[in-house]
Amino acid sequence: MIIYSHQDCFLKYNGDGHPERKERLVTIMNAIKTSGIQTDFKDAPLADLDTISLVHPVKHINQIFSNIPRIGIVGVEKEPYADTMLCPNSKNSILRSCGSGIAACDDLMKKNERVFCAIRPPGHHAETERANGFCFINNIAVAARYLQKKYNIKKVAIIDFDVHHGNGTQEIFYNDRSVAYGSTHEFPLFPGTGAESEKGVGNIFNGTLKAGTKSKEFFEIFENKVIKPIDKFKPEVILISSGFDAHIRDPLANINLTSKDFFYITKKILEIANIHSKGRVISFLEGGYDLTALSESVVEHLKALKTHI
Ligand code: Q9C
Ligand code: ZN
Questions:
Q1: Strand partners, 237
Q2: How far is CA 65 from the centre of its chain?
């Protein structure tokens, strides 16, 4: 299994006390190394604007970059969500996060290797023309489009178990039958989208979780609202938005999963990937803000993901 990351992803600084911080990647990388899981660490390349523009207009991306400060940090959103920040090192962290997914697609298709992208900033809240929720470029959406364009993949599924709804991913593919998007998320919670009535053109599958949801109930909803419809869709590749903030320890949400649950969640996804997708899976780090929960959960996720294609 390949792990993509890059020093530039550690350098993004969102301000003191911000939950999306470099220690997340530090603890993940240390946990992977001490886990004994066999991994091949690779440096994420910078994404090119041509590939990014499969999802976001270049004008919008340049607009984001033009707001990068020379010193200090600035927010790109209006109140009350003034927590999506740019710092002097942002450009390369954003481009490496997206670039990891593009390189991962090449590794998946050419070498038949599964990939985990240990990156920040995350991507699933980024809409076509709107940065939000700590996200600027929708890393997983760019990868989906790249697979379709470069490798002629017809049907891509995106499974999102981050505790927040991936409003960006849903918006990007809302009218697109070639991409299925399935998400479980606490509801109501930021960003407010993801009601089960939001179905796109029959390609969007939302499973809502009440605050306080525990493992057993989570698995029922994940199975019925996400796994079953994605199984019917028969994707050729499955991309995962892996957020670990549905963990009981997470400070940003109220779902009560344990670290081990992320092993079984991942196994469920692999079951359908093995049936329809030749086992082809790429996983993208999204959220997860308690360092202990995050490092334990990522290791569980990788234990399930590491099996050979
Ligand atoms: N008072 C991810 O997990 N917080 N993003 C808004 C408003 C935004 C989370 C708080 C949380 C974004 C990738
Ligand atoms: Zn999240």
A1: 156
A2: 21
Q: Quote the CA–CA distance of 122 and 288 in Å, as a whole number.
A: 10
At residue 81, does pLDDT exceed 80? no
Our CA angle for 217, 294, 47, nearest 5°, is 110
Q: How many residues does this entry show for the chain?
A: 309
- Residue 8's nearest CA partner among 35, 45, 40, 34 is 45
The strand order across the sheet containing 237-242 reads 40-43, 2-5, 115-117, 281-285, 237-242, 156-160, 179-186, 204-209
Contact 128, 56 (CB under 8 A): yes
CA 209, CA 299: separation in Å to the nearest integer? 24
Query: Quick check: pTM over 0.90?
Result: yes
Using an 8 Å Cβ cutoff, are 86 and 76 in contact?
yes
What is the Å distance from ligand 1's center to 13 Cα? 16
Q: Are 3 and 305 in contact (CB under 8 A)?
A: no
* Distance, CA of 181 to chain centre: 12
> What are the tens digits of pLDDT across the range 266-292?
999 999 999 999 999 999 999 999 999
pLDDT in tens, 121-135: 999 999 999 999 999
Which residue has the least CA distance to atom 5 on ligand 1?
A: 133
Q: Which residue has the tokens 């796109």?
A: 200
Which residues are within 8 A (CB) of 10 and not within 5 positions of it... i.e. 6 or more apart? 22, 25, 26, 120
Q: Max CA-CA distance within the chain?
A: 50
Q: What is the mean pLDDT of the chain?
A: 97
Rounded (5°) CA angle 171-165-115: 90
Q: Say how far apart CA 270 and CA 248 lie, in whole Å.
A: 24
Best residue for ligand 1 mutational test, from 14, 78, 83, 167 (most atoms within 8 Å of Cβ): 83
